[in-house]
Amino acid sequence: MPPMFRALEQRNYRLWALADLVSVTGTWMQVIALNWLVLSRTGSASAVGGAILLQALPTLLLGSWAGSLADRFPARRILVITQGAHALLSVGMAVLAAGHAPLSWVFALTFGAGLVGVFDGPALGRFGSQVVGRKDLGNALALGSILSSGGRILGMSLAGVLVAVTGESTLFLINAASFLVVIGAMFAVRPEELHPLATSTPERAGVRAGLRILLRDRTLLTLFALAFVLSSLGRNYQVTMAAMSQGPLGAGAAGYGLLSTVFAVGTVLGGLMAARFRELSVKLLLVAAGATSVLQSVSGAMGGLWTFAAVLVPIAAGAVIIDTTMSTRVQLDTAEDLRGRVVATHGMVAAAAGAVGGPLLGWLCERFGPGHALESAGLVTGVATLVAAGLLMGRPALVRWLPGRSRVAPATPELVEQSPAVPGLTLVTTVPPVTTPAQPAAAQPAVARLATAEV
């Protein structure tokens, strides 16, 4: 099997990847069904936005507690509960869609799905890491982004056909069945081939202990800050593509549909590119962030539909590389017993970025025009990338980038764990982590959702 598909050599990952594809497809079918149900009953796009907010709100409020829970208890036990709860909620949505129940009930179940999803994500992150192990996690995340894009396209396509033929209820029931597939995959994997992760000791367990440790990690804080800026101003292309189609490009709804398809193709290409890298490093992250920032500014000056679409392809590919590399680094460069809390915090950053970035980009498009909004946002993300490079790399590390300079051996993970002030680049190392419980090594379903790409 080619190296870019090396994670698929593992039987457990093949099962988990198949379950992921089924679940992501079902999830997007439910997204379309829910949006259409709310829109058809209210005629209000704001009501659809409210439903989306209800799903995202629990992540911002309870993400830290969910991560702490995932670090203390077996991931599979949590996932059986959460996936089963998701299935029941989807069945409930199907019943409401078939009848004439008040819309407030639909919103209540929507909030319930978001509440269950808070506890679902960190546990999925830990279990996905156990399926593939440290060595192939980056490759699995890259392949997962391809599955996520494929499931998104497949789910939206099937939903567009079925919602007109069978109604919304069928889509909710299909999604309910997809959660049962994930539960089946968890019990079908071979336990002896899993890669155990350390769980938190009492003194390192809990939200406060995790927060104290994370706040001392300058590298992780810098990565999260960069992720927030890139996600809020460099990922909300659903907003800017619509504004460009309606405004400067004059392409209308048909053009927006074309750009959405082009963007999806770009995400698949980005996943394939990320899978080819043996190591997803901080250097790769910064290069991809800088390149996409420049391309984003360039895209704002494009006056034609096809030229804008051509620039959109590498932007979408770069977004996947960034998100996959970010997810890999924040997990592998922190302690294993913090993995759940790190995944939860990453999800909270993504949710906050979406909540802030969407309205902000919308306002910029209305106030200054979509072209200028893209140019300005690209400039801001570019500056943020340069600042992050200075903080993450430091002058000695930057010198090592120059040709003809001797390379300095990176510090071991043990030294980084004991000395949080060490510059972040030393965390990107090929030295195996300590595996003793006293000092261990750090989506959604399956590994695909670990990438948490906001594309």
TrEMBL record:
This protein's superkingdom?
Bacteria
Per the UniProt record, which residue ranges are transmembrane?
A: 15-39, 45-66, 78-99, 137-165, 171-189, 220-237, 249-273, 304-322, 343-364, 376-398
Q: Is Membrane one of the keywords?
A: yes
Q: Looking at the UniProt record for this protein, which Gene Ontology cellular component terms does it annotate, in alphabetical order?
A: plasma membrane
Q: What is its main location?
A: membrane
Q: Which Gene3D superfamilies match?
A: MFS general substrate transporter like domains
Q: What SUPFAM superfamilies does the entry give?
A: MFS general substrate transporter (SSF103473)
Record localization: Cell membrane
UniProt KW keywords? Cell membrane, Membrane, Transmembrane, Transmembrane helix, Transport
User: What is its membrane topology?
Assistant: Multi-pass membrane protein
InterPro entries cross-referenced by the UniProt entry: MFS_trans_sf (IPR036259), TM_effector (IPR010290)
Instruction: Name the PANTHER family on file.
Output: INTEGRAL MEMBRANE EFFLUX PROTEIN-RELATED, STAPHYLOFERRIN A TRANSPORTER
Name of the protein this chain belongs to: Predicted arabinose efflux permease, MFS family
Organism placement in taxonomy: Bacteria, Bacillati, Actinomycetota, Actinomycetes, Pseudonocardiales
